[in-house]
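S1.2 Input.
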Amino acid sequence: MAELTLESLAKQIGVSRSTISRVINGSPNVSSEVREKVLKAIQATGFHPNAAARSLASQRSWMIGLVLPRSVASFFTDPYFPQLTQGIAFSCNDHDLSLSLFLVGNKKDEEKIYPRISRSGMLDGVLVQSGEAGDKLIEQLTKSNLPTVIIGRPWESENVTYIDVDNVNSAFNATRYLIELGYKRVATITGNMTSTVSIDRLEGYRKALSGAGIKFQAALVAKGDFTEGSGYEAMKKLLASMPDAVFCASDMMAVGAIRAINEAGLTIPGDIALVGFDDIPLGTLTNIQLTTMRQPIMQFGIKAVDLLMDLIENGTTPARRMFLNTELVVRESCGARLKENNSHRE
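S1.3 Output.
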């Protein structure tokens, strides 16, 4: 017979794992009716939490941390992070958790952060948005006993629990779609090449070109940093290479690219088609409706908390991996409807 775990017991009696954990550890945040139901089930099944879970649960603070590699200013200007935080906050409410936010805007912040979040008894666990190569904080956390979930594939993923989308395949699908629409000179605006997400999305772009028998051209690649301003500057550089379509590794950079294309007196999608990545609300508020690869940003937050709770209650080994699906959302900027209308006229 399979060993009874918190998760299987929770499913059996119709409550969450965190509810069972709170009952076991005498937390007051459980109704008397639910407490009685859980205790009866424990008695009937003879359930005993494993040693790792029991050890962790006995020192619970019911607070988790969220560490974002962003300054206060950029946290509020990039729509990705408020959406991610909103999903995390929703899930924290479901688990009766408090959330502590840490913004790491520079090296000085990075040096100070680990002693604060690793202080004994302060946090039950921590969520960390994956940053750039050489991220010392992620390295320190994964070597500690503090349950940690990385949001986005980290550089070193061995024995690390993380949640992500398949960025290579998603970028491949976005680029291939432009190629299938008949575009011959498909460019890309990448993120910083010191981040795994940028590297993976560039790899997906290159694979799509190779699969279609199109030679990779460095002149059709421009680097950004996921900001609107960097997308604008990158697009201005690409214009000299005369692309007929561009895959942007983020919607924010696509918004900047739209501005540069408009300033050059060109039209979207008539002269240059665009596909972004993320599906942030801003992509539908520009003068052109942005085709994009939608990733479930709020679900990232919700599922990341669920994954962290699993580590807290059932132990941190083995490391877990969770991948969420993306979806191509076709709107005006890719030119699909324009090409369809032209074919009908023919």
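S1.4 Remarks. The chain has three domains: 6-49, 63-165+297-325, 167-295+329-345.
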